[in-house]
Write a structure and sequence with these properties.
- The chain has 251 residues and is mainly alpha-helical.
- The chain is 70% helix and 3% strand.
- The protein has twelve helices and two strands; from the N terminus they run ααααββαααααααα.
- The chain has a two-stranded antiparallel ribbon.
- Helix 2 packs across helix 4 and helix 6 packs antiparallel against helix 12.
- The radius of gyration is 21 Å and the shape is elongated.
- It starts with a helix and ends with a helix.
- 37% of the residues are buried.
Length: 251
């Protein structure tokens, strides 16, 4: 979030005058700014953030809005606050990097290549296995959800929010089709990873190729009940997506 965007939120909720709606937006804007700064490396693990009084005066926001923002960052494992010691940035391994909002903060700037690679490694471990299970356990409703998502992707393309939302729906439908509750919990994280890497690839140029045929192959294998083919198709989809992302990160 830019300083201009944060300023708009401040205008909606001046210090000492925090209506419930704007107040929530304001502390969310502060959390976004601080979270982005932490994920970008502006604040490194071990750094102590400015105190609430100094920060509130610097950005002309209320101390309560700052405290609520710090609570958000604490819940996501980014910081810890202690009396007299202040608010300190925690080691990276403590960060909830699969939180969809934290993923958004990571991609608000220039993401670390190692972090991007780790996301694709996670997908390469989870999604092919999920596709294999989905081929065995899917029902008509699951197939309909995947088919509808594919149609929306074709109609809107991944250059639009509607198309990217359909992409998230497609991957979520596969995880749901596994019938595995632990895998279903990953839907939001996997969806966010898919969304943000796609948006990142589109920042500098158009996608070098359409990934929709790769998704179609996954769907067709799942619909046919062929677990091996579904896993292989998903593995190819993830590998090609990583290749596209690497290309986007080159100068």
């Amino acid at each position: 979030m830019t300083d201009a965007e944060l300023s708009k939120e401040k205008d909606a909720a001046r210090p000492g005058e925090e209506p419930r709606g704007p107040g929530r937006r304001l502390h969310g804007a502060i959390a976004h700014k601080l979270g982005t700064d932490i994920l970008s490396g502006k604040y490194a693990p071990g750094d102590v953030l400015s105190g609430e009084v100094a920060f509130a005066e610097e950005l002309q926001v209320s101390r309560s809005a700052y405290r609520e923002a710090i609570q958000v960052l604490t819940a996501k494992g980014l910081v810890a606050s202690r009396p007299k010691a202040g608010t300190r940035v925690l080691p990276r391994e403590r960060w909830n990097l699969l939180d969809p909002e934290v993923l958004g903060w990571a991609f608000a700037g220039e993401p670390d290549i190692e972090f991007v690679r780790s996301l694709f490694e996670l997908r390469a471990i989870v999604e092919p296995a999920a596709a294999r299970l989905a081929a065995k356990r899917r029902d008509k409703a699951d197939l309909k959800a995947m088919k509808t998502a594919l149609a929306e992707m074709r109609s809107h393309t991944l250059t639009t929010e509607a198309g990217r939302a359909a992409d998230r729906d497609f991957h979520a439908a596969i995880l749901h089709a596994t019938g595995n509750q632990a895998l279903m919990v990953l839907s939001a994280s996997i969806g966010a990873a898919v969304n943000w890497t796609t948006q990142f690839k589109l920042r500098a140029r158009a996608l070098p190729r359409s990934p929709i045929p790769d998704h179609t192959k996954v769907y067709e294998a799942i619909a046919a009940g062929d677990g091996d083919a579904a896993a292989e198709a998903m593995n190819v989809l993830v590998e090609l997506a990583l290749d596209d992302t690497r290309s986007a990160m080159r100068p």
